[in-house]
Amino acid sequence: MPADRHKDTGLDAPGDIGIAVVPSDTTDLPNGPCRAFDVGTAGDVRVIFASDASNGGTGTPVTLKNRAAGMPYPYRVRRVLATGTTGGDITAIY
To answer: Which domain of life does the UniProt lineage start with (predicted)?
Structure first.
């Protein structure tokens, strides 16, 4: 997994990089855990949170139901899964 760009910095500043997300059931986000993500097309987004595995978690997926389009969500995730994600045009914000 790539290094966590925000591990030792505050998360209150706005993001400075946006990268299109290709949901995958097996691959983490290429730039490491994001500071937030934006959903361009409304729907569910199934994720694995950034600290889940680093804290001894098993990488348990969580479905964030009914995410509205055009909304940035301040969730630090390391993976957006293809299975269970119905929202689209997702951008990871770093």
So the answer is: Bacteria
Cβ atoms of 33 and 4 within 8 Å: the answer is: yes
- The model's pLDDT over 10-60, given as tens digits with 9 standing for 90+, comes to 667 788 899 999 999 999 999 999 999 999 999 999 999 988 765 566 788
> Which residues lie closer than 8 Å to 11 by C-beta, 6 or more apart?
35, 74, 76
DSSP the chain: ----TTTTS-S-SPP--EEE----SS---TTSS-SEEEEEE-EEEEEEEHHHHHTT-----EEEEEEPTTEEE---EEEE-STT---EEEEEE-
* Phi and psi, residue 53, nearest 5°: -75, -35
**pLDDT given for residue 63 in this prediction:** 97
Which backbone phi and psi does 6 adopt, to 5 degrees?
-110, 5
